[in-house]
Amino acid sequence: MTVLSARDVDVVYPRRGGGPVAALRNVSLSIDQGEFVVAVGASGCGKTTLLKLFAGFLKPTAGSITLGGEPVDGPGGERGVVFQDDALFPWLSVRGNIEFGPKMTGLGAAERRARCGRIIDLVGLTDFADHRIWELSGGMRQRVGMARALANEPSILLMDEPLGALDALTREKMQELLVHLWDRTKRSVFLITHSVEEAIFLATRIVVLSPRPGRITREFHADFSRRLLDGETSRTIKSDPAFIALREQVLSAVLKGAEA
Ligand SMILES: Nc1ncnc2c1ncn2[C@@H]1O[C@H](COP(=O)(O)OP(=O)(O)OP(=O)(O)O)[C@@H](O)[C@H]1O
Question: What is the secondary structure of 65-118 as a DSSP string?
Answer without folding.
Answer: EEETTEEP-S--TTEEEEESS----TTSBHHHHHHHHHHHTT--HHHHHHHHHH
